[in-house]
Amino acid sequence: MLYWLLYQKLFPYFRLFRIFRYLTFRTVFASLTALLIGLIIGPYVIERLREFQIGQYIREEGPQSHQKKKGTPTMGGVLICISILVPTLLWSDLSNPLVWITILSTFFFAAIGFADDYIKVVHKRNLGLTSKQKFALQLLVSLGVALALCVLQHKGFYSTRLVVPFIKRWRPDLIIGALLHNHSLWWLGFAPFVIFVMLVLTFSSNAVNLTDGLDGLAIGCTIIAAGALTVLTYVSGHAVFSDYLELSRMPLAGELSIFCGSMVGASIGFLWYNAHPAEVFMGDVGSLALGGAIGTVAVLIKQELLLPFIGGVFILEALSVMLQVGSYKLRNGKRIFKMAPLHHHFELLGWSESKVIARFWIAALVFALFALTTLKLR
């Protein structure tokens, strides 16, 4: 809205407002706006959560050291979502369809998490939506994103070709072109792309959700992942940088750097209150929204295959749960880890909570830096 007012409307009369056309300027100010919103309204949100007795319920089978966290206000993800979405609406070009896809995806993933958290609070238990209900809703939101991208692809604003790290010219198309000319089976031509997007978004959302188990762990890793995405969105939309790095030029993608900058600022603001010992937890409303946002941005800028590096810690946490469950079912109750997700395994090995958090942040930074180096290693 500020972009529309200060640049598109007032720039012809006040030449100084030309500065609002630049993505770098608006990205920085969006990040600062998100940080200030988080810091300013954070105490108010936390106090309201305490008044409504919206406290965290700790699972009994978890580490005993976590029992002391019982009753800490949860659903702090509401603060994160406000801090991301408001600056994005203020500083981005709202005529850009990719911005709206990202905003709506984040909002609906947050709504799923809100419903899950609300049920936990009402019934005073650690179980909200069933796993099937949550998974079905995540797939539904992901389907909406995939269908929107199919429409943009038809209009020439988006490419369904995969960008493969380290390989310059091999870019397979996830749409089966031969089926598009069949009047009865044309919709099957989009099926591989739609399924791929649904899997990426659902997995990304759940991966962040599984990582949210220690004070500041998930939000610290989010800061790093969002920072990497800010760089990637900017270079993807920049004519010179995208050509130099041999990326697919996506003029509309550059505007997403404002959303990613807002995610960085909002995450830093939330970390102020979520750092160990946490004053508030993000809950599913925060973790599902952040995971959905990261996955959506990666899909929009054609960096889906870089997600294992951009969000390396998130991926490891999710894989540890999958391996643990698979081992338990296939090997007659035998486990690979002392406890899953992975951060609990290291806690039970004797690492202090603060040490686990710091070392996982370091790992997340190494993964993100490696993701950025792949841009030129092609």
Helix and strand layout, with pairings?
Layout (H helix, E strand, L loop, with lengths): L1 H8 L13 H29 L25 H15 L5 H27 L7 H24 L36 H21 L5 H21 L1 H6 L11 H19 L8 H18 L6 H4 L1 H19 L11 H7 L4 H21 L5
Helix pairs in contact: 2-3, 2-9, 3-4, 3-9, 3-10, 4-5, 4-10, 5-6, 6-10, 6-12, 7-9, 7-10, 7-14
Write up this protein.
It is globular and about 55 Å long. By secondary structure, the chain is mainly alpha-helical. Helix 2 packs antiparallel against helix 3, helix 6 (191-211) crosses helix 12 (312-330) and helix 7 (217-237) runs parallel beside helix 10 (283-300). Helices cover 63% and strands 0% of the residues. The protein contains 14 helices and no strands.
Offer a quick outline of the entry.
63% of the residues lie in helices and 0% in strands. The chain is mainly alpha-helical and 378 residues long. It is globular and about 55 Å long.
Top keywords for this entry?
single chain; 378 residues; mainly alpha; 14 helices; globular
Quantity of strands, as a count: 0
**Rg from alpha-carbon coordinates:** 21 Å
User: Helix segment count?
Assistant: 14
Give the DSSP E fraction (strand runs of 2 or more residues): under 5%
Oligomer type: single chain
Q: Give helix and strand order, one letter per element, not per position.
A: HHHHHHHHHHHHHH
Low-pLDDT parts are none
Question: What class would the helix/strand composition place it in?
Answer: mainly alpha
Proportion in helices? 55-70%
State the shape: globular
Q: What integer is the average pLDDT?
A: 87
Q: Outline the biggest β-sheet.
A: none
State the distance separating the first and last CA atoms. 39 Å
